[in-house]
Amino acid sequence: MDIFEIIKSRRTIRRFSQEKLDRNLLIDLIEVARCAPAGANIQSLEYIIVDDPLAVSQVFQTLAWAGHVKPKRNPEVGQRPVAYIIVLTDTEIKKEAHVDAAAAIENMLLAAWSKEIGSCWLGSIDRIKLLDVLKINEKYQIDSVIALGKPAETPVMEDAGESTKYYLDDKDVLHVPKRPLSKILHINKF
Q: Which pTM value belongs to this model?
């Protein structure tokens, strides 16, 4: 796939097969994350790969999933992620790095999808519990958690009508409405 196909076909995955991911692939995702732009080139982001089954289970307990379709997209046992990447900001280097993190995370999501790995970018995190579970030094702020695994679902993108709220159809397929280009694009003036 070329980069445009990767970008346009990537959807958030919340159901995963239980096939283990190669740790070298996870390390490669950190490599592309570190290549992302950072404001003033102040590089405050660090990452934790979690792929040990017990640790993966503990991380899962700190996350909330798919608010618009609860509880139907809370992954059940046998459909949960097999790995996570925790995105951290070293607050001694930079107090907040949400924009930097977003650039790094998008690199990871697209690189993962190019290898047929599904992902879910999570921000609804019990950060205090996760700091304890992973023994993270308190100088670090947890920005996001990226859930990873081979997809066990195929969400579909569609043009949004009145609402951009994602939904499940009667066949349990997740639909993700996106505003059409004609509604968001302006050329030379508004």
A: 0.94
CATH 3.40.50.300 correct for 3-153 = no
| pLDDT tens readout for residues 11-70 | 999 999 999 999 999 999 999 999 999 999 999 999 999 999 999 999 999 999 977 776
- Could you tell me which of 114, 116, 120, 110 has the C-alpha nearest to residue 146? 120
Residues in the chain: 190
Q: Are 104 and 36 in contact (CB under 8 A)?
A: yes
Q: Is the distance from CB of 25 to CB of 117 less than 8 angstroms?
A: yes
Which fold, 155-190? putative fmn-dependent nitroreductase like fold (2.20.180)
Q: What is the DSSP string of 18-66?
A: -PPPPHHHHHHHHHHHHTS--GGG---EEEEEE-SHHHHHHHHTTB---
Model pLDDT for residues 65-99, shown as the tens digit of each residue: 977 776 667 899 999 999 999 999 999 999 999 99
